[in-house]
Amino acid sequence: MSDSATPATPVTFPPAFLWGAATSAYQIEGAVREDGRTPSIWDTFSHTPGKTIGGDTGDIAVDHYHRYRDDVALMADLNLSAYRFSVSWSRVQPTGRGPAVQRGLDFYRRLVDELLAKGIKPAVTLYHWDLPQELEDAGGWPERDTAYRFAEYAGIVGEALGDRVEQWITLNEPWCSAFLGYASGVHAPGRTDPAASLKAAHHLNLAHGLGTKALRSVMPARNQVAISLNSSVVRPLSPSDPADQVAARKIDDLSSGIFHGPMLHGAYPETLLEATSSLTDWSYVLDGDLELIHQPLDALGLNYYTPTLVSAADPDAKGPRADGHGSSEHSPWPAADDVAFHQSPGEQTEMGWSVDPTGLHELIMRYTREAPGLPLYITENGAAYDDKPDADGKVHDPERVAYLHGHLSEVRRAITDGADVRGYFLWSLLDNFEWAYGYDKRFGAVYVDYVTQQRTPKSSALWYARAAKSGALPEPEHI
Questions:
Q1: Is the distance from CB of 23 to CB of 430 less than 8 angstroms?
Q2: Binding-site annotation: residue ranges for substrate
Q3: If you placed Cys at 339, which of 115, 175, 187, 247 could pair as Cys (CB 3.0 to 4.6 Å)?
Q4: 226 φ/ψ angles, rounded to the nearest 5 degrees
Q5: Is residue 280 part of a domain?
């Protein structure tokens, strides 16, 4: 039992609880020029000198495109009941427009068939940051047309897979797409225009609404449509300081309210519109947009790694911005230069992120209140550690085991507290291409030798397999 658990907390999870793992297309597939696939913004970005550690790219990644059958067999060995993966838009629709390339769709058809044959429930994410480069060349997410192109793509994939895939996620972490891609520039496409990033956020919201309608127009009514948000758990450095409370509200609006406001409530927060008025008048929010975005959801995906600690900025303070989102002279927080970020206390992962499982409970309970009656899934949660094989070729990662035990204990506590959490997707199944960090950070429960592509389940994978099989959490030392 974790320190945060109470004697009333049940030992087991609900019988129908999904024990899953998650990945994304560009991080694992490789085969970037096969079967009609064309470059995405991440192909372009990773091939631009200086953008990724070591100049690493996803050209090969972990070669999942060719090894998916073995990877699915590994999932079955680990007792997974669900697998969340993303579809590469430029593999399916190379220009971001027009008819699908059936060879690209066929890969996902085969993957879904393989999963179902092993009794593993597929969960499809339509967009995990890999916009076709041709759409970026036409203006990318700051352009309204991109949202309509996404809806067309959603309909294509929904029609191809909707008869066999019941769980759908429109976008993964639109905050990262908008603000790391268009404000700080640490993610593709690497632009640094804060006003454009706010337009991108709105058009990502619009894409979600239009994509949801497109999916429902081509799929059986039983299918669930959701979105995965990485809403920050924002805490003021001094909870009693009004200036720190204002700073926390500003960052909460920019990380959470900007997306769940229109999606769940049909409106942007007034405090957000006021705080960003120096950058934009929001005139690109057209009549009817908020209604389009405010589509009924069947579920909500929550991604959580670490809390965010902020205060009002000291005008004389200098130094890097400790927000955990990469190094850049440009902030991913538009119109928030008056906010300072602080390292949260406690042990840290290889990403420099503090380990705080209570933040996950806080996030779950927030959305239990924010969207009563809406089922929740933890669609990402995990940690990067410096994993290495020992002399026998085994990979022991007790830190990750402890991380998973702590966070899953908080999920279990939230369920006891009345939250309708129906599943958990560990990030990630495999070590993979970690965006701008290249292959320098390992999030996988399965170790990948990037030279031989050999897969080795780490201690955490074996621990998670036991939890998935029993529906209970083994003590961390029992691996």
A1: yes
A2: 27, 128, 172, 305, 427, 434-435
A3: 247
A4: -140, 180
A5: no
